[in-house]
Amino acid sequence: MQILHTVEELQTWSRGLRCSGKGLIGLVPTMGALHAGHASLIRAAAQQCPGRVAVSIFVNPTQFGPNEDFARYPRTFSADCDIAEREGAIVIFAPSVEEMYPPSAATFIDVEGLSERLDGKSRSGHCRGVATVVAKLLIAAEPDLAFFGQKDAAQVAVLRKLVADLRFGTKVVVCPIVREPDGLALSSRNVYLSAVERKQALVLSRAVRNVERLVSEGERRSGALIEAARRVFAEEPAIRVDYVELVNWETLLAVDTAAPTTLFAVAAWAGNTRLIDNAVLR
Ligand code: AMP
């Protein structure tokens, strides 16, 4: 496995592969601190793009707000390399902040509308940072397929729109949420949780499961589903709800009635840790 640090090296790798054969090239963008959720993305990429998968590891400063956890975000580079290699990546792209954002850089990408909804609403500038870094990664790696987790469902909506609007020749592949056996969605931020918060945090997946169950039993009214989820959250008063929403997964606009492609999404704070979870109500 090769470790590349510059955009030029990644472009040279990708263009070399494209000249040398017909297989698809896959990219898995991550911020590192890899866990089984990331591993599932890399595995899916390796299945669809055997021998042609790059994993990017870059803690992207522009997607963190001034009072967020950029400085203390977990960084576990050598363990990440082991996981990526084991799952079938052949390249790690690990650029410096200066490589991705030279001091003279002045270009950012705003996906208007979507950027102000769900996570973008409470994390000002977050979506702009995500859209900008992913655009830079797609331009550098020129992948046929880019793999993302449904865990960050609002991010997926923003990135699908980015790729469609700017006509990137890349297909967005969305992989299912990987969970702990007790239901907690895996996240690099779970390491911040105390033992007590870790238990309380289960309320997110409980609320999501409860809504899925109600939908399977025939409840479709958004108001009733949101209220049911809020009742579940009320069982853990220490968890501070950020949002509980039923939206169209493409526009992220609230819907009155659950339909296929409706996204039920929640975000909440366990202590200082912001957690998210969701389900697509198929
Ligand atoms: P991150 O490193 O947190 O930026 O995440 C990199 C990619 O991994 C994103 O596309 C995430 O949606 C995805 N991801 C994170 N957690 C999970 C999970 N529990 N299951 C599936 N994918 C995930």
Summed up, what is this model?
With 282 residues, the protein is α/β, with parallel strands linked by helices. 38% of the residues lie in helices and 19% in strands. It is built from ten helices and nine strands.
Q: What's the total count of β strands? A: 9
| Bound ligands, named by name, code or SMILES | adenosine monophosphate
Order of helices and strands: EHEHEHEHHHEHEHHHEEE
Q: Count of DSSP helices?
A: 10
Sheet of most strands = 6 strands, parallel
Q: Order of strands side by side in the largest beta sheet?
A: 1-4-3-2-5-6
Q: What separation lies between the terminal Cα atoms?
A: 39 Å
Strand content: 15-25%
Helix proportion? 25-40%
Roughly how many Å is the radius of gyration? 19 Å
Mean pLDDT: 97
Decide which structural class fits the backbone. alpha/beta
List low-pLDDT spans.
Answer: none
Shape: globular
